[in-house]
Amino acid sequence: MALLEITVVPLGTGGASLSPWIAGMEALLEHRGLPFTLHDMGTTVEGTADELFAVARELHEYSFGQGAPRVYTIMKIDDRRDRQVSIGDKVASVHARKATPDK
Predict the structure, then answer these.
(1) d(CA 81, CA 83)
(2) pTM to 2 decimal places
(3) Interacting residues of 46 by C-beta distance below 8 A, sequence separation 6+
(4) Which of 31, 40, 60, 76 has the least CB density, counted as fewest CB within 10 Å?
(5) How many C-beta atoms lie closer than 10 Å to residue 37's C-beta?
(6) Per-position DSSP letters for 40-68, written without gaps between them
(7) Could you give the count of Cα atoms lying within 13 Å of 38 in the half-sphere of its Cβ?
(8) How far apart are CA 56 and CA 63, in angstroms?
(9) How far is CA 95 from CA 64, 71, 83, 88, 89, in A?
(10) pLDDT for 89
(11) Are 35 and 18 in contact (CB under 8 A)?
(12) What is the pLDDT of residues 66-103, one digit of tens each?
């Protein structure tokens, strides 16, 4: 599995708040059925690389479908194939290292 970090910013919407747009994109993710976590600066989604590229396009296009004249999307994909990774694994690894300092 791979992880996608994505931030989608609709521009030219006439307001400063993005929460209604983000809520709509979150509903799209829920419908898609991929594990995801919303955080303060974006969303992390888990899936195969093919699923993540497809959902990134859906999220990007969503705002156009809602009337945004311009959309700015930032995405990063971490596709690790030597072992299974899931949302939260990287953070858990850091916390484990902090709990047991190197000797």
Answers:
(1) 5
(2) 0.87
(3) 1, 2, 3, 4, 34, 35, 36, 86, 87
(4) 40
(5) 13
(6) TTEEEEEE-HHHHHHHHHHHHHHHHHTT-
(7) 11
(8) 12
(9) 39, 35, 19, 11, 10
(10) 87
(11) no
(12) 999 999 999 999 998 898 889 988 888 889 988 887 65
Residue with tokens 């709990």: 99
Within 13 A of 96's CA, how many CA atoms are on the CB side? 6
Structure tokens at 48: 């195969």
